[in-house]
Write a structure and sequence with these properties.
This protein has 346 residues and is mainly alpha-helical. Helix content is 63%, strand content 0%. The protein has helices spanning 4-10, 14-20, 26-36, 42-51, 57-70, 76-82, 88-101, 107-113, 119-132, 135-144, 150-162, 169-175, 181-194, 200-206, 212-225, 227-237, 243-256, 262-265, 274-287, 293-297, 312-325. α2 (14-20) packs across α3 and α7 (88-101) packs parallel to α9. The protein is elongated.
């Protein structure tokens, strides 16, 4: 909802708005700039370009941001010049706005900004370069994967993925070893979008990471990559000595949906860890292989608690019911709730 002051600003003429840019009231200047950004005439554009070289750094940054929203090619040169401003915020807004233009003429200047002394500027430049693209951009972004700042590294990874630069895949896989969990998690997302099977061995290792975001992003990436290769690596992970890795592997197999993997999961209904047993039951329910029903029914009496999941037996029961509801198998009235076969009256 517009404030009364903003409504008043919207009603002002172009000449009044331009005059407001010289006001002693900083708030009035910024409001005038915002409204000028909605105009599409040359006078508004040139007034904002003039503001880009004013004495007030906040106003210069706002002008750079507003010019980016206008996306007028006439503002390209002033925005490129603003990348040399002595204020970090101005340089950041200029880089962001140049990226919004998508103009290839800004590429060389943005590539230089990747060497800026301030990481926030470099991070903004990675995104902008990723929007413009080109062979030079890909080469520079691959180098930026080694930047000292984590925001720049993951920004470069995201930009490379947006450009679908498959030559970056080996470099992204190496970045899964980054010292910052946030970078590892985001790179796992990037590799998922590439469906990079070559990343699977390292993603499996990340299932054991201490940081939960890294673990889950790695699991999600394996599911997104999918296919036979992902299933093979997940099955191998079932033998990991870490129970957390085993139950995540079971969950991945359930999400992958490859029915043939059900038989590799069955032995883990007897895993010493109850969470592994519960996740295995869940996965078997998702996979829809009716030939595992006997194995599931044999574990209905498993009352081991598994936190918010309830008990192992409850998860087994849910898996059986899911298989029956799916229509892949008929309900089996010959089995009791305690997992024992009912005696026949015949």
């Amino acid at each position: 909802m517009l404030t009364q002051a903003m409504e008043k600003t919207l009603g002002r003429s172009l000449a009044q708005l331009i005059a407001d840019l010289a006001s002693f009231d900083a708030v009035m200047r910024l409001r005038a700039m915002e409204v000028l950004g909605t105009r599409r005439d040359s006078e508004a554009l040139f007034a904002l370009m003039d503001a880009l070289t004013g004495e007030d750094a906040i106003q210069r940054a706002a002008a750079a941001e507003t010019l980016g929203r206008m996306r007028d090619s006439r503002a390209l040169a002033p925005l490129m010049a603003a990348l040399a401003d002595n204020e970090v915020t101005v340089r950041v807004r200029a880089a962001e706005s140049l990226g919004l233009t998508g103009d290839v003429r800004a590429r060389s200047t943005l590539l230089e900004a990747l060497q800026d002394s301030h990481p926030e500027v470099r991070a903004a430049a990675t995104e902008a370069v990723g929007r413009i693209g080109g062979e030079e951009a890909v080469e520079a972004l691959i180098k930026a994967l080694d930047d000292a700042d984590p925001d720049v590294r993951w920004g470069a990874a995201d930009a490379l993925t947006r450009l679908e630069a498959r030559e970056a895949i080996p470099h992204l896989i190496a970045l899964l070893n980054d010292r910052e969990p946030g970078v590892q998690a985001r790179v796992a997302d990037a590799l998922a979008r590439y469906k990079a099977r070559a990343a699977l061995p390292r993603l499996v290792e990340l299932l054991a990471e201490e940081n939960f975001q890294v673990r889950w992003r790695a699991a999600d990436a394996m599911v997104a990559i999918g296919g036979f290769s992902a299933a093979v690596w997940a099955v191998r992970a079932l033998a990991n000595p870490d129970a957390g890795v085993r139950w995540r592997a079971a969950d991945i197999l359930g999400r992958l949906g490859r029915k043939s993997c059900a038989f590799a999961l069955v032995p883990f209904l007897d895993d010493p860890d109850p969470f592994v047993r519960a996740r295995t039951a869940q996965a078997l329910g998702k996979l829809g292989e009716p030939r595992v029903l006997d194995a599931l029914r044999a574990h209905l009496r498993d009352e081991a608690p598994v936190g918010f999941l309830g008990t192992v037996g409850e998860n087994v029961q849910a898996a059986i019911e899911r298989l029956e509801r799916s229509g892949r198998v008929s309900p089996q009235p010959g089995w009791g709730e305690n997992g024992e076969r009912k005696k026949s009256n015949a």
